[in-house]
Amino acid sequence: MRLSDFIDRKQISFVIAGMFLLTSFWGCEKGNVPSGSAVRDGVMLTVLDPRGQPSGIFGRVGEAGAGILANRNPDTQPKLSMDELAPLRMAPRLDTLENKTIYLVDTGFAGSMDFFKEMQRWFNENMPSVKTVTILKSGNAFVDSPELWPELKQKADGVVFGVGG
Amino acid sequence: MEGEFGVPTAPIVTSRFAEYVIRDGKSHGMNLRWAFPPYPVMGVDKETLVKYINGDDPVTGKKFMAEVIDALTKPLTEEEKNPPVQKREKRPRLLAPDTEANLNRMFIEKGWTDGLPIVLPTQERVAEMLTGTDHDPQEKVGMMSVTTHEELNEYTVEKVAAIAVMAGARPEHLPVILAIASTQHPSIPSSTGSYGSMVVVNGPVARIIGMNSGVGALGPFNYANSVIGRSWTLMSINFGDARPGDTFMASIGNGLSFTNQCCAENEEKSPWEPFHVQKGFKHSESTVSVFRGWNVATLGMGGADAIVQRIESAGMMGSATFVVDPLAVKVLKDEGWTDPFKLSEYVAGKLGNAFFKPRPEDINFVVVGGETNPIWQSTDYTYYKTVSVDKWMPENGIKLDKKPIRMPVSKQCEDELCLIGKK
After folding, report:
1. pLDDT tens track for B156-208
2. Which of A69, A89, A96 sits opposite B73 (nearest CB)?
3. CA distances from B375 to B215, B301, B308, B323, B366 (A)
4. Tens of pLDDT along A30-83?
5. Strands (E), B325-409
6. What pLDDT score does B417 carry?
7. Inter-chain contact B153–A54, Cβ cutoff 8 Å?
8. Strand partners, B379
9. B176: number of CA atoms within 13 Å, CB side?
């Protein structure tokens, strides 16, 4: 028996319409999945970690006299290995600031000297026995000032250093 | 001051940078006694500074000046006497398996992308990318950080290949991307001033991989330019550890950072020696040159004195790189500048003040453009270095796909139509 003898044209139309509707519903459900994910939904992928590995190497402050971009250049920026990193030994603290000399050291960031002038005014008004000295660090904010540190050791009881930002 | 000279010190940084300096200090074994005023300090009036000093530290909630005094006088704790150095753990080579949707979400949410869709670096895709070079996948390429003091991060050939996959590149692009990686320059160093970067490719490789040096070369019209430039940013994010507000402090950001002004030099149309030849390489060598600054300032036209005037009027901070259309180079050549370094000497000689005097090496010219008009773009970019691409190429040459992907290409100007430079 041939198919056409068994199913007339009307019945075939119903079958095609039914298949179309089913396909449409299936498509709607899949349409809720974010674009690009439907095909692989449920498939587990293994991908590489794109992040860099810790190297144990650190950047450090630029050499005295270096240009402002020197420590922005991997070829000229001084570096320090973790093996050379000794935990910082902090200096013994002062018993009191009374009658002490405190240097307010401007690192060179814009606005720092104005800030320290106001801090100096605060000391004068609130702790008049404290002698404060404002000073601008030599070089730019990113380089060493080797001549300054011995001077501070000789003249200062304590240092306020800033203002980074 | 603390360790070597024994002077008690109270460091001050605005509160915007508190997390940054605390974390950075601990990684160096430094338990400094910070005090954090509100921010900014630059550009504010006296009354505001007085409020900062009389007010509270917004990080700790304590009186700011009390913290400064405590920093200098409060006895050291045991931890301060023996601060530990915090070591970071090595990362695994592979991430835990997951679905494509979840991994895509994770890469975006962890900040490992530029916010645009990526291609996930599956093992298969990375293996295919690695066919673009003969180098050992585990060979170390370099180290990078977007900061100046934090721990640098190492990366291998395989890591660079993973980034290339993420950017949508093909193996043919890998040698150029590896060359950029080998400079160890992040394209987006952390600076409140928001850096922009540029990478210019010279030599035969540019033509082989279909880079654009002509019409719209610095625009979104070339597959190689785009994916190579994007790779540099994805490397900077992932190898340089750029995290906004944490390690990356660009206040406004820079729209050029997505693909970093990546193009080839238009050697074919330039009457000057190619840029890499000016820097000591052979014509036959392929190279990348990296530049960085803040501003793509303005469009301009004219000869040497117009260039001087533009640098002066734009207030550039000591360096300048001009992206010059070949037609504009022909104008300069007509003016007698057959050697761009002579032009750099002339321009540098006209500039400077009591505080700053640029060197000729600080003034650079790269020839890019499609000869639609004799124009140039001024930038305040500093030229940093030129490195070889050839080192990273496979022995059998660039690994091209059977049918390499190429975007539509504009025709170059025919010489008989361009009357400039026909003297």
Report:
1. 999 999 999 999 999 999 999 999 999 999 999 988 888 999 999 999 999 99
2. A96
3. 12, 5, 15, 9, 13
4. 333 334 444 456 899 999 999 999 999 988 777 777 776 777 888 888 888 887
5. 363-367, 375-379, 382-388
6. 63
7. yes
8. B296, B321
9. 37
**Cβ–Cβ < 8 Å for A164, A137:** no
Test A59 with B162 for CB contact under 8 angstroms. no
Q: Is the separation of the CB atoms in B340 and B366 below 8 Å?
A: no
Residue B191 CA, distance from chain mean position: 12
For residue B295, give the nearest of B317, B274, B276 by alpha carbon: B317
How would you label B130-152 residue by residue, b for 16+ Cβ within 10 Å and e otherwise?
bebbebebeeebbbbbbbbbbbb
- Calpha distance A65→B58 (Å, rounded): 35
Cβ count within 10 A of residue B402: 4
Pick from B11, B74, B185: CB nearest A162:
B11
Q: What is the pLDDT of residue A59?
A: 84
**In chain B, which among 117-146 make CB contacts under 8 A with chain A?**
117, 120-123, 126, 142-145
Residues B89, B153: Cα–Cα separation, whole Å:
12
Q: Which of B320, B321, B337 is nearest to B329 (CA)?
A: B337
What is the nearest CA distance from B72 to chain A, expressed in angstroms? 6
Q: What element of type H or E holds A111? A: none
The tokens of A83 are what? 């093996």
Query: Which residues in chain B are contacts of A93 at CB distance < 8 A?
Result: 8, 72-76
Q: Which of B84, B92, B382 sits opposite A87 (nearest CB)?
A: B84
Q: Do B184 and A47 touch (CB under 8 A)?
A: no
Tokens 């203002």 locate to A163
Query: Each residue of B337-374: pLDDT tens digit?
Result: 999 999 999 999 998 876 678 899 999 999 999 998 99
Nearest CA-CA partner of B156 in B175, B172, B136, B129: B136
C-beta separation of B291 from B384 below 8 A = yes
> What contacts 24+ positions apart, CB below 8 Å, involve B309-317?
B310/B378, B311/B347, B311/B351, B311/B363, B311/B378, B312/B351, B314/B378, B314/B380, B316/B378, B316/B380, B317/B293, B317/B380
Answer whether A37 touches B (CB < 8 Å).
yes
Q: CB–CB of B239 and A42 under 8 A?
A: no
Residue A47, classified by CB atoms within 10 Å of its CB into exposed (0-12), middle (13-18) or buried (19+), is buried
Q: CA of B353, closest CA in chain A: separation in Å?
A: 16
